[in-house]
Structures are given as C-alpha cells and as structure tokens.
UbiA family prenyltransferase (Haloarcula onubensis), 291 residues
Amino acid sequence: METHRDYRTGQDWDQLAALVRWTQEFSLVQGVVAAAKTTFAMALLGVETALPAVVVGLVSFAVYTANDLADLEEDAINNPEHSSFVADHPVVVAALAVGTFALGAALAWWGGGTVAAAVACVPLAASLLYSLPVTPGGRRLKDVLGANTTLVALAWAVTVTGVPLAVAGAPVGPVAVAVCLFVYLRTFISVEVFNVRDVTGDAATGVDTIPVVLGVPRTRQLLALFEGCSLALVVALMTVPSVALVALSALPVLGYSLGLTWFLGETGRMKAFCLAKDGEYLLLGLAALVV
C-alpha cells in the first residue's frame, strides 16, 4: 500500500525529471556541458582561471538557443512540444540568445582582449554557415553529409581550446593541438548521437546526417572508431608529465562513453540516452576539478 510519504517522494522525482527535461530542451544543459568540457580542456592546458569556462558556457547556450529558431521545421517532427514554444515566442528566444551571446563575448574581451573575443565568436560564425543556404546548389551546410558535423565539431574544438589559451596568453603547443583534436573527436561523437535521436525529422526534411545515410548500425561502428582515436590521444597525453594525471582521469569516462556508443540506437528513450551522453562531459569536468 502506497503511503503519503511514498507518494510525495514519487512527486519529487517526477518534478526533478521534468526539470531536467526542461533544461535539456531549452539549451541550459548544453551551456553547462560546454562549461564542463572547457574545464577539462583547461586542466590539460594548465589554465586555472574559471573565466573561459563561463564564456564558452554562455556562448554555447546562446548558439543552441538561436539554432532552435533555424530548426523549426525539423523540430516540428522530432520535438513538436519544444518547437511549438519556440514558434510561439520567437522574439523572446532571439532576445535571450543575443543577450547571452553578448555577455559571453564581452567577458571574453575583458579577460583576453580581441583574440579571446574573436575565438568566442567562432561558434556563431559556424552556426550561420551551418544554417544558411551557402552552397552552390542553395543547400545549407546542415543538409550536406559530413559537412554538418565536421563544421560543428571543429568550431567547438577551436573555441574550447582557444578561449582558455587566449585568456591565459599562452602559446599553441603540441598539448594544445592534442586537446583540440580530442575535443573535436568527442564533439563529433556527441553530435552524431543526437542525430540518431533526430533521424526521423532529418530524413523527412532532407538533412543528410550520417545516421540518415549510413543507418544506425554503421554509425555506431564509425563512432566506436572515433572513441578509439580519443583513447589513443589520451594515452599519448599520459606520456606528458605535466598533464599525465588529468589524462589518466579521463580513462573511466571514455569507458563510460564507449559503453553508451555500443548500445546506440537500441533504446526507444533517446532523450534520456542523449542526456546520459551529455553526462560524459560533466564527469570530465568533475575529474579535472578533483585532480
């Protein structure tokens, strides 16, 4: 027999789950994830100030919020409830994106000058290229196989690595190149996991993502290869004494991520699966703080 306390506990868990889903829907999770990803990169780069993580978190929130306006057609199929809210409040969504981005760019300029501010603007430039019909055939890069994920992953890799370096006034060295490549691989994997979630809407609207073209089983194999490349980079970084411990802390997280990739497409609860995938970056950020 269910007691009043059990009933209240169930309500509390339902409210917590609803809150998590709400933050995921409205890009708050993406902002926190970007900040955590930057925290891990900063630990490898030897940058101690928290400002770059704040900047990248704000920029990420702004870019993904603005992207909701560009993806209304696909989201109407993949996520109609969220799409309806964005369509009904475009001015609010746009103002939130612009205001948050302006704050992030201003903090980047304050902490690292014009170089940091310019690097912080890279995801915005990539987002415009991603969403506008810039190809000779009038297609968006978002619709072109390979170009979509490559552009997104490259933009975030440059930003997550470049903003900390610019704020710290540090040069680009071998460790920075390795960190940039590591972030690129991790972001590529994450984007394609989310593309598996959105495969129905993308296929219906002509967006040629890897899961749409290759199918989920082959996508899983490709991402497993990228997981292996990430592991190889971490092992290489473990040979550098100054970052060996931080790199070592990433190994359990990569194991966690590989486990998720192994089961990609085999669950009907892709929203929860993507949230678990985002949790990888929170674990990396936590590992960096602990180490």
